[in-house]
Design brief:
Pfam families: CSD. With 149 residues, the chain is α+β, with helices and mostly antiparallel strands. The chain has one helix and seven strands, in the order αβββββββ.
Amino acid sequence: MARSQESYSKREKEKKRLKKREEKQKKKEARKEEAKEGGGGIPFAYVDKFGNLTETPQDPEEKEEIDASEIVLEVPKREKAEYDPVRKGKVSFFDYSKGFGFIVDQENQEKYFCHISGLLDEINENDKVSFELEKGLKGLNAVRVKLLD
């Protein structure tokens, strides 16, 4: 009875794998021999004060002492922008039954969400208001909303 093709391909794959392994070993040994015979290249590389590689070490008298405590390993803190936190705007929409609305900022015409819990006075559509911005779950929210005269 004849052997199946599957076992034949398995043997062929195994032969290829062994052949690759042998070739790799031969290349590795050849590189080792070449390194022993060649002896070329720089056995040590030194860095001078300008950051260039050299064959000779730097003169110890020219070395600079650096205080490790002066090295800062952090991102500098960003200074807060000096601006008035109280902004002015106009109520574009507000629904008391749902408990939320939107305010349009006068300066940049951005719409900000406003919840009924952030109101200090009762507001209606087209009222001029002053408010502050606070980060919410889905962006900036208008809080501490006051009605302007």
